[in-house]
Design brief:
By secondary structure, the chain is of the alpha/beta class. It contains four helices and eight strands, in the order E-E-H-E-H-H-E-E-E-E-E-H. It has helices at residues 51-57, 65-75, 82-86, 144-157; strands at 10-17, 20-27, 62-63, 90-95, 100-103, 120-123, 138-139, 142-143. The strands form two sheets. Strands 3-2-1-4-5-6 form a six-stranded mixed beta sheet.
Length: 158
């Protein structure tokens, strides 16, 4: 892993390609799929045909579920506001096999509007699509995001 999540800049992205789930922490610009990006290794349109090359090129940004869980657990005591927790929420889900793209990007930038022809692109809460074993925010059947939100909210009330 080369990058840390950073609100609205470095995003946690869940990717399905050839039935394999992978988490990445990358720059946000990579995920305008049908827009030519200078920094996307010369890949003009990111789709099921170019995914293998792209995923290979961003391999250094791959992060395991265990790493994400560890980061979240280690940093949870340092969070002062829920905005800090937002950095660790998954922002984008791309399924190259099914040609689906879902975004929960928190700012007014609509990644879902920039999908290739024939793809589904929506602003949608995709967390239920994440395989149970890949939900790094679930620890002993407790949703750590919800727990952090409740804890921080209680602290603000005092």
């Amino acid at each position: 892993m080369r990058l840390m999540p950073e609100y609205a800049q470095n995003l946690i992205v869940g990717v399905v390609f050839q039935n394999i789930w992978t988490w990445f922490i990358t720059e946000r610009e990579y995920w305008f799929l049908n827009v030519e990006m200078e920094d996307r290794f010369g890949i003009k349109v990111l789709d099921q045909n170019t995914a293998e090359d792209f995923i290979h090129k961003i391999d250094e940004y791959k992060v395991s579920t265990q790493e994400l869980t560890r980061m979240l657990v280690e940093l949870k005591e340092a969070f002062q506001t829920y905005d800090e927790v937002l950095e660790f929420l998954p922002t984008i889900y791309v399924d190259f096999d099914k040609k689906e793209f879902y975004s929960l990007y928190p700012e007014p930038m609509s990644f879902e509007d920039y999908v290739p022809e024939g793809w589904i692109g929506k602003y949608l809460d995709f967390y239920e699509l994440v395989p149970l074993e890949e939900r790094y925010w679930m620890i002993d059947q407790i949703n750590l995001f919800e727990r952090l939100y409740q804890s921080l909210r209680r602290n603000e009330e005092y």
